[in-house]
Design goal:
heterodimer; A: 337 residues; mainly alpha; 66% helix; 4% strand; B: 110 residues; 4 helices; rod-shaped; membrane (chain B); Gamma_Secretase_Asp_P_PEN2 (chain B); transmembrane helix (chain B)
Chain lengths: 337, 110
């Protein structure tokens, strides 16, 4: 049941990358989180710079996650909500404005400011309402997918080549550590939320169904906003110990959506042809399958990134360097297998 | 949000709130805050409630709000379609004003 949204997100990202050239153009601008340039003279320097970039990026993420957990532990809910509202505002208005502009430029359409203002205003306001307040479930899910896709596109544009791949690898390791180690921040987050019997961080999570909590008068709401700075990278099964839940849904953190899409998007942008993209796509879905299987066996919060990203990386590099030349040669010699 | 699980009064308040297009912060300019999309969501989401389900007490009010949202929506669609048609057709002829209004200008010779 999580396959459809993950696939949708990846399809949107790949479609945009292949058609709108803006997201693959490198104009030297980089995020402040990755200050080292990759335009170096030697391969060694480039590798060093990408590793340094990764270290900086991962430390930023670690610091933010710990900050978030501390805030949650000390019940600074207002601060967290304010932060999340600001991030979703930026995503829904600014990034979608940029995206719309680029799509219009690609298809060479004329568009006037009043109409664009109307479109963005409507999109943004209804998005804020759906995500932070109440809305139809499918619309909430659609908005979360849209936000993850936009974020992934921003990462693809502004992360330099090698740094992106190293960051993907490092983030999977961090996810593993943060969710499974006893003192890992994400594990503490999950446990604190369970102790307080609250929905596990009503933010950053995509859920496939609504959940009824036993004994609460109001239905617990899930599938809420996104914080693109960190994202909780855990796959959590919505379970209630008293086994009286009406609906079970599976939840996936939005950070997971984003990084899956970054992997597939990068494969589409730099990988050459569709073989690579498809291979990565299949690899991620297989990884997701395995993670869900493990979830059914262990019944606790699990990191969703490691398995899928590992498979994705392996498939990307092997397809790009082994399968593609092989297929090209076969085609060149008209040899069909 | 699953509509079946809400009691009827909540459904009514929800429908009304969507109709007015208000957020908790002060956004509502000139009454309806230029949000036809919100009205569309209102109509689609509550359509079954208002017209397909068997009658219950609050249903009449829900029907009114859905109808009003539908009317507002149709009005906005008409206005937007007219404006877009006019703009696309006359953009080149308007010269300076056309460029000033344009967000993206297509390249090349028409």
């Amino acid at each position: 049941m999580l396959f459809v949204p993950v696939t949708l997100c990846m399809v949107v990202v790949v479609a945009t990358i292949k058609s709108v050239s803006f997201y693959t153009e490198k104009n030297g601008q980089q995020l402040i989180y990755t200050p080292f340039t990759e335009d170096t003279d030697t391969v060694g320097e480039r590798l060093l710079n990408s590793v340094l970039n990764t270290i900086i990026m991962i430390s930023v993420i670690v610091v933010m996650t710990i900050f978030l957990v501390v805030l949650y532990k000390y019940r600074c809910y207002k601060f967290i909500h304010g932060w999340l509202i600001l991030s979703s505002l930026m995503m829904l208005f600014w990034f979608s404005f940029m995206y719309l502009g680029e799509v219009f430029k690609t298809y060479n359409l004329a568009m006037d400011y009043p109409t664009v203002a109307m479109i963005i205003w409507n999109f943004g306001v209804v998005g804020m309402i759906c995500i932070h307040w109440k809305g139809p479930l499918q619309l909430q899910q659609a908005y979360l997918i849209a936000i993850s896709a936009l974020m992934a596109l921003v990462f693809i544009k502004y992360l330099p080549e090698w740094s992106a791949w190293v960051i993907l690898g490092a983030i999977s390791v961090y996810d593993l550590v943060a969710v499974l180690c006893p003192k890992g921040p994400l594990r503490m987050l999950v446990e604190t939320a369970q102790e307080r019997n609250e929905p596990i961080f009503p933010a950053l999570i995509y859920s496939s169904a609504m959940i009824w909590m036993v004994g609460m008068a109001n239905p617990a709401r899930h599938a809420e906003p996104t914080n693109q700075d960190t994202g909780t990278f855990c796959l959590i099964s919505a379970y209630n110990p008293l086994a009286l839940t009406m609906l079970r849904g599976v939840k996936l953190g939005l950070g997971d959506f984003i990084f899956y899409s970054v992997l597939v998007g990068k494969a589409a942008a730099t990988g050459g042809d569709w073989n690579t993209t498809l291979a990565c796509f299949v690899a991620i879905l297989i990884g997701l399958c395995l993670t869900l299987l493990l979830l059914a066996i262990f019944k606790k919060a699990l990191p969703a990134l490691p398995i899928s990203i590992t498979f994705g990386l392996v498939f990307y590099f092997s397809t790009d360097n082994l399968v593609r030349p092989f297929m090209d040669n076969l085609a060149a010699h008209q040899f069909y297998i | 949000m699953n509509l079946e699980r809400l009691p009827n009064e909540e459904k009514l308040t929800l429908c009304r709130k969507y109709y007015l297009g208000k957020l908790q912060m002060y956004v509502c300019v000139w009454g309806f805050a230029f949000l036809p999309f919100l009205w569309l969501v209102n109509v689609v989401w509550f359509f079954k409630e208002a017209f397909v389900k068997p009658t219950y007490t609050e249903q009449l009010q829900i029907k009114t709000y859905v109808k009003r949202s539908g009317l507002g929506l149709l009005l906005w669609v008409a206005v937007l379609t007219t404006w877009i048609t006019i703009f696309q057709h006359f953009r080149a002829e308007w010269g300076e004003v056309g460029d000033y209004l344009s967000f993206t200008i297509p390249l090349g010779i028409p």
